[in-house]
Amino acid sequence: MKKRPRINRWTQSRRDLIFSPTIKSSLVQPHFVVAGNGVNEAIESMPGISRQSVDVLLETIAGDMENGICSHMLFGVVESHEKDPMASKASDSEMPLQRAVLQLKEKYGNEIVLMTDVCLCTATDHGHCGVIHNQEIDNDLTIPELVRISLSHAEAGADYISASDMMDGRVKAIRKAFESEGYTTTGILSYSVKYASSFYGPFRDAASSSPSHGDRKSHQMDIRSGYKEAISEANGDEKEGADIIMVKPAISYLDVVRKVADAVNKPVAVYNVSGEYSMVMSSSKDISERKAMVQEIFYSFNRAGADIIVSYHTREAMSQKWFD
Ligand code: PBG
Q1: pLDDT tens-digit readout, 151-167
Q2: 323 alpha carbon to ligand 1 midpoint, in Å?
Q3: 0.85 cut: is pTM over it?
C-alpha cells in the first residue's frame, strides 16, 4: 500500500485545519443537505441547525466562510421513496450531496475543506449502516457499496471522505480504490473509535437514519470498552491508510481521545455529537452562558489532544468570536 502523507499538506486550508494549534482553526461545521430548492427546514431537536437544499446551503456556507469557517462536513439526506436495501442513491452523482460538493469546489477551490459522510444508513430502507444478509449486517457485502459511495464523493471533489460506518477493512478498500482511480490527493477521515452511543438521537432525526429495527451494536463499539480496543482500532485504521483518526462522541470519551492521540501518528478529530450539542442548547439560559460552556468544552477537547473539532457550535462560536 502506497503511503500518501502529502494528503494532509495538500492545500493551505487543510494545513490550517490540521496543523494550526489554535481552536478556531480546528473547527468544522456539519451540514445536512436535502433535495429541492429553497428548502431550509429547522431540526427541532437541534436548535440553530437545519436541513438545506443545495442553493440554501451555498448561501449558508458563504456566510460561514466570511466568518472564517473554512472546513465543512456534509451529510446527504435521502428521501424515503429513494431508499433501498443497498443504499444505491448514496453513490449517485446527481444527488444533492454530490452536487453541493461540486458547486462548492467550483466556487471556493482549495480555500474550502470539504468532508463528506460515507455510510449506508441514510440511504437504506432499513436504516442500517450495512447491507443486510441472513438478517445480519454483512461486513464484506457492505465494503463495495462504501467504496462506490466514496468514489462518487471523490469524483465530486471532496477533500476527505468521512467513513462513519464502522465496517472492518473499509479504509483499506477505499484507499485501494482511490489509488487505482487516480484520487491520490483525496483523504480518508476514519471514524476509527466510534461508540454505540445514545447521544446520536437528534442526528438520526436530522438525517432520517434511525434503524427500523435492532441497533448498531454489532459494529459500533461497546460503551464499556476500554483503551485496548480503541487503540487497536485507531492503529489499524492508520495502517490501512487513514489520514485522520476520529473519536466519537467527544465529551464522555476525553480519556479515550488522549490515549488515541498518544498512540497514533496521524491527526485526531473529535465529534461533538448531536446529543451533546442539544444538552448545551437546552441547559444554557442565554448566549453568555452558552459561550462559557462551549469554551470549557472546546478547551477540554484541545487539552485531550484533538487536532480537529467537529461541532454544531462552530457557527455561533466563530460568528461571535468566542475563540479569538
Ligand atoms: C452515520 C452517522 C451518525 C452520526 C454521524 N454519522 C449516526 C449513527 O452512527 O447512528 C452521528 C452524529 C451526531 O450525533 O451528531 N452513521
Answers
A1: 999 999 999 999 999 99
A2: 26
A3: yes
Q: Which residue carries 462548492 as its cell?
A: 104
Report DSSP letters for 109-154, one per residue. Answer: GGG-EEEEEE-STTTBTT--SSEEETTEEEHHHHHHHHHHHHHHHH
Look up 248 and say whether it is catalytic: yes
Given a cut of 80, whether residue 1 has pLDDT beyond it is: no
Pairing mode of beta strands 27-34, 71-76: parallel
Catalytic residue among 83, 89, 172, 248: 248
Q: Assign 321 to helix, strand or coil.
A: coil
pLDDT tens per residue, range 208-242: 888 888 888 988 989 999 999 999 999 999 999 99
Phi, psi of 43 (to 5 degrees): -105, 115
Tell how far CA 185 is from the center of its chain. 18
Q: What are phi and psi of 162, to 5 degrees?
A: -110, 105
